[in-house]
Amino acid sequence: MTFLGLLSAAGWVLGLIFAIFSLACGLYVVSEWVEEYPRLTRQVIHVSVWTVDVVHVLAAFDGLSVWRLAVSAAANHIYALNLARFPLVDLGSATFVGSCLLAVSNHFLFFFYFMSHLRFPFDQVCAFMFFGVWLVPLALFVSLTPVDASLPSAQAATGDRSKNRQNIFKMVFSRFGRSEERRLPQSLHAE
């Protein structure tokens, strides 16, 4: 392998790392918006359910399996049942657990369909998978908030009334920040 080949491989690796980091930062920003505007988020997710239904109807005209599209549309409306008490989501409820199982099965339903019907170009498959299969579950996933931190009873039990709701991404990033603070030398904390 030549120097330019190694340089190219290093560029691809760094590009992939940068893309993953950018995606994580974007999800963090979106989760901040979701936390700031829960009512608007609920409306956007509700509209996206109906938008995905339109995508399914239009995809049927392109020759996709009608029964798979009907199952996917039904799954999207089951996801929407999680919006009843939005932004609070009971992670142990039958609706949430069923939504998670449906999201995985819906993905594999279309994954195996597209693997057996190779007439669709890759970019069209990716576009349909994002807009027709993943859009609503991803929107719900980004908007999840831990119920224990959100309930007033949890704050009263700990006596910490200043603790605000945090979504999943904010909790993960704040834990990374705290671990960095522990690694800094004590002389930096004194300044």
UniProtKB/TrEMBL annotation:
Q: What is its main location?
A: membrane
Transmembrane intervals:
6-30, 50-71, 91-113, 125-144
Keyword Zinc-finger recorded: no
Its topology with respect to the membrane? Multi-pass membrane protein
Among the GO biological process terms of this entry, one is: endoplasmic reticulum to Golgi vesicle-mediated transport
What is any one of the record's Gene Ontology cellular component terms?
endoplasmic reticulum membrane
Q: Which family does it belong to?
A: Belongs to the SVP26 family.
| This protein's name | Erv26 super protein
Q: Look up and give the organism this protein is from.
A: Coemansia guatemalensis
Q: Which gene encodes it?
A: SVP26
